[in-house]
Amino acid sequence: MTSTVLQQITDDLKTAMKARDDKLRVSTLRLVTAAVKDRDIAARAEDRCGGLEEKEVLAVLTKMVKQREDSAKTYEEAGRIELAEQERQEIEVIQAYLPKQLSDDEIDAAVDSVIADVGAEGLKDMGKCMGALKERYQGEMDFSKATARVKAKLAG
C-alpha cells in the first residue's frame, strides 16, 4: 500500500497505543486500518498488485464517515443518544485524515465546471458528471449534495 494517508493513520495508531491514548481513538484507527486492508485485499483479487492509491484510501474513509453519520441518525431516532455520540466521535477521528471539505459554493462551482468539461446536456449525462466529480474531488466533497446539484442543473 502506497498511501501517505494510510501511513499517517498507521503511525498515529502506533503512537496512540504506546501513549495509551483514549480507547475510542485507538479502536477507530484500528477499524480504519482494517477497512483499508480489506479494500486492498479486494484490489489484489482484481489483479492490481500495486496496492491502493491515495484516492481509494480516501474513498474508504469517506464511506466510513457516511456509515457513521447514518448510524448516528438511527441511534438518535431510537433514543440511544450515547451510541449516537460515540459514532460522532468516531467521525471526528476519521475526518482528521480527509482533506478539507468543499463548501456549498465550492461544490456548485465544481459541478458547473464538470458539466461544462463533460459537455453534459441532460440527465442522461449524470453518470459522466458524477464520475468526473468523484475522480477530481474524492474525499473532499459530500457526493449526496453534489448528486442533487448535478441533477437539478441537468434537469433545468
What is the assigned CATH homologous superfamily of the largest domain?
A: Uncharacterised protein YqeY/AIM41, N-terminal domain
The total of beta strands comes to: 0
How does the overall form come out from the CA principal axes?
globular
How is the main sheet built? none
Detail the poorly predicted runs: none
Strand content: under 5%
Q: Which CATH first-tier class of the largest domain would you pick?
A: Mainly Alpha
CATH topology of the largest domain: Hypothetical Protein Yqey, Chain: A, domain1
From the 3D coordinates, which CATH architecture of the largest domain would you assign?
Orthogonal Bundle
How far apart the termini lie comes to 43 Å
Rg of Cα set: 18 Å
SSE order in H/E notation?
HHHHHHH
Could you explain the architecture of this structure?
The chain has 156 residues and is mainly α. It has helices at 4-18, 23-45, 54-77, 81-95, 104-118, 126-137, 143-155. The protein starts with a helix and ends with a helix. The mean pLDDT is 89.
Topology:
Blueprint: H1 4-18, H2 23-45, H3 54-77, H4 81-95, H5 104-118, H6 126-137, H7 143-155
Helix pairs in contact: 1-2, 2-3, 2-4, 3-4, 5-6, 5-7, 6-7
Quick summary:
The protein has 156 residues and is mainly alpha-helical. It has helices at 4-18, 23-45, 54-77, 81-95, 104-118, 126-137, 143-155. It starts with a helix and ends with a helix.
Question: What would the keywords be for this entry?
Answer:
156 residues, Hypothetical Protein Yqey, Chain: A, domain1, mainly alpha, Arc Repressor Mutant, subunit A, 2 domains
